[in-house]
Design goal:
This protein is an alpha/beta fold. It has helices at 20-31, 54-67, 82-92, 122-137, 147-150, 154-164, 188-196, 209-221, 238-241, 264-277, 283-303, 307-316, 370-375, and strands spanning 5-11, 42-48, 72-76, 96-100, 115-119, 142-146, 171-175, 202-204, 229-231, 249-255, 318-321, 324-327, 339-347, 350-359. The model has no long low-confidence stretch (mean pLDDT 92). Residues 5-346 form the Leucine-binding protein domain.
Amino acid sequence: MQSALTIGFLTPYSGVYPAYSAHLVTGWLLGMGLDPVRQRTVQFTSEYTHMGGAGASVDAARKLLFFNNVDILSGLISYKIAPDIIPLVENTKRPAFFFDMGEYIPHFPYLSPDVFYASHQLWQSEYALGKWAHSHFGDGGHMIMPVYEAGYHLHSAFKEGVTAAGSTQISMTVLPHNESDPKRMELDGLFTTLAKDPPPYVHAIFAGSMGTRFLEKWIQSGFHKKIPLLINETMAYDDVLEDIKHIDLEIYTSMMWMREDQSKANQQFVKKFESIAQQPANIYALMGYEAGLMWRELLPYAKKKDWDTVKQQLRAGVIDGPRGQKNFYPASGFALPTANILKISTTGNKINKLILDQGAGMRYDAKEFEVIHNESMTGWQNPFLCI
């Protein structure tokens, strides 16, 4: 009897989405056409990496590769720590297949032929929203975010989109961080500034419960519906808005996947996942499912440990999934996602979404992004939302 294909999964903690790894793995197995409950074809081994920093991730990767002897190394990691893990992967000659939300614009001083990336490309969502914001509301918007969110490329990608649309100015406020009270949100100074000189729009970038609290304070401020409010994609996910859908809210966002999308491929995914998980499909389940569609094709070679063929196909392969084409090797040019620009309103305890426009993606290696990498040599190691 052939042994199971083993996948080692680097698993950081996320207080925002505690069950993300279970959703991702369930989606992956469903994409492969396997029953997550009864299948014995693939075996996942999770290894906790704390907040996802380099030290903990490298130790976990070393254990999975050399002690557990897994066939494939996977998990949620940041591009910032990939260079620390790549030597371990290349030493084994086995493939690594990592997931990320796309909080950083990809940058690969060295691109390993053994390492593959399933990215949600959040930065693309921000770029599209910035481009639309300028063309729709005009020049001189104001971005606001806490220190944590400012450590990623989301605001940089938004600014690049604004600039591409012809903007000459955009303001930014980074909220001060209080070590003794990290959840403190001091907005009085910002609101005073906005009242004196109202911008054509405000773009808020927050993670987790801080985003919900910001929306509540925004409504109390008196600016609501007077200054258009644009929020980052993760602030607009259904499970986040669920907590505030009783408020009369009107916001704009950009989203690269919608559960409501009626395409056959998407509805097939949603129904499969929700019948197994008994909860709404989400972005992590989708990322896993897309990976599964690719690995379904690779399974015959992976079972035989024919890693050369597996890696060769991963470098060139493109899947057609719930949100269109997707590929996993940067050198083949990540398939450009389509971002829907949405107006979201909450009335009568319901979340209403109206698609206003569609924004096109941008190649990650476009020369316009070089300045972002050159100016931003630091950044958080923990994957976005792993707080």
